[in-house]
Specification:
Length: 124
């Protein structure tokens, strides 16, 4: 019932910028923490940035200073602004959200949802 959809990916030259979006849709849920992760072929999935319900943020050392994570709770949407992109940033980026589902219990149950992923390619 809850779906996460990423958008805004594509191909850019080194030094360029992209803005990724992740929109959550459904009913009877509340989003708590959200985050962006990425996974390149042959490499493990790694955290890029996370943001809590109180807008506390954390960034991977490899992107800190070049990336900004934000969220619009009214729209159930999270954003990742990627600046000064490097070829090493090339990866599939995944949206993740910790969501409280109220369909079964009044207190809710916590679930982790993933988007399908979106490709970001940075050429040199």
């Amino acid at each position: 019932q809850v779906h996460l959809v990423e958008s805004g990916g594509g191909s850019v030259q080194a030094g360029g910028s992209l803005r990724l979006s992740c929109a959550a849709s459904g009913s009877n849920f509340r989003i708590t923490a959200m985050g962006w992760y990425r996974q390149a072929p042959g490499k493990p999935r790694e955290m890029v940035a996370t943001i809590s319900s109180g807008d506390n943020t954390n960034y991977a050392d490899s992107v800190k200073g070049r990336v900004t994570i934000s969220r619009d709770n009214a729209k159930n949407t999270m954003y990742l602004q990627l600046n000064s992109l490097e070829p090493e940033d090339t990866s599939v980026y995944y949206c993740n959200a910790a969501i409280v589902d109220y369909r079964y219990y009044s207190t809710g149950t916590l679930h982790s949802y993933w988007g399908q992923g979106i490709q970001v390619t940075v050429s040199s």
